[in-house]
Amino acid sequence: MMALCLKQVFNKDKTFRPRKKFEPGTQRFELYKKAQASLKSGLDLKSVVQLPPGESINDWIAVHVVDFFNRINLIYGTMSEYCTEKSCPIMSGGLKYEYRWQDDSKYKKPTKLSAPQYMCMLMDWIEMLINNEDIFPTRIGVPFPKQFQQVCTKILTRLFRVFVHVYIHHFDSIINMGAEAHVNTCYKHFYYFIREFSLVDHRELEPLVRMPQGWRN
Fold first, then answer.
1. Residue 104 lies inside a defined structural domain of this protein
2. Does 88 carry a binding-site annotation?
3. Residue 97: beta bridge partners?
4. What φ, ψ does residue 92 adopt, rounded to 5°?
5. Which of 28, 64, 91, 99 counts the highest number of beta carbons within 10 A?
6. Which residues have a Cβ under 8 Å from the Cβ of 124 and sit 6 or more positions away?
7. CATH assignment of the domain containing 158
8. From the centroid of its chain, how far is CA 148?
9. Is 91 domain-assigned?
10. TM spans, by residue (predicted)?
């Protein structure tokens, strides 16, 4: 019954946008398969995120950034009907934390947006970056740019804010859909990964530090 429920909740038709895939036969695809195999093996998540011997750290980070984008995009897509302009006029994490949007095109200064607007801008922005060959090169022999990890830090920092908003404002909806185990596992995987490689400033993590432990167990 639970499996059927989760299948309905995480139906591909409900994704926020098309899933980004790794090209079969590439090194990144093989790394992705290795990471997924480790996840399914039941290994401790702290071990799963560690860099495999002999592998490139940038390739490992690239694989996880794309995978987390897919997973978090799907999580938000499942409960986006509960996150509306009316219910969430400000992109926030409770009363203490507010997130404003800024990019290099339309919003050159930090701008207050509703949560749905912020999420849409965020997913569009990440999708543009991970499809940019100058930032996420997929061709063999093409090096990552010098600022690659900085870009990934910014992506992962903003993706963490999706967890903040979902946990603080919409976790009841996640529970009602029977999807809390999936969301909690994804959060733990994400958390251990960013901590393993120090990819998100600890100050960004504060909104969920004091969250009741039961929410994340």
1. yes
2. yes
3. 93
4. -145, 170
5. 91
6. none
7. 1.20.140.30
8. 17
9. yes
10. none
48 part of a folded domain: no
Q: Is 165 annotated as a binding residue?
A: yes
Tell me which residue has tokens 């909690």.
184
**Whether 169 contacts 88, CB under 8 Å:** yes
Q: Where in the sequence is the domain holding 152, given as residue range(s)?
A: 1-6+55-215
Could you read off the pLDDT of 110-134 as tens digits, one per residue? Answer: 999 999 999 999 999 999 999 999 9
Could you identify the residue written with the tokens 């701008």?
111
First to last CA, the chain: 21
The structure tokens listed for 137 are 């090169």
Number of domains in the chain: 1
**CA separation, residue 133 to residues 28, 90, 124, 138, 163 (Å):** 14, 33, 16, 7, 28
Confidence at 82, pLDDT banded by 50, 70, 90: very high
Q: Is residue 189 part of a domain?
A: yes
Q: Which amino acid is at 200?
A: V
Reading the block at residue 34, the tokens are 């290795």
pTM check: above 0.90:
no
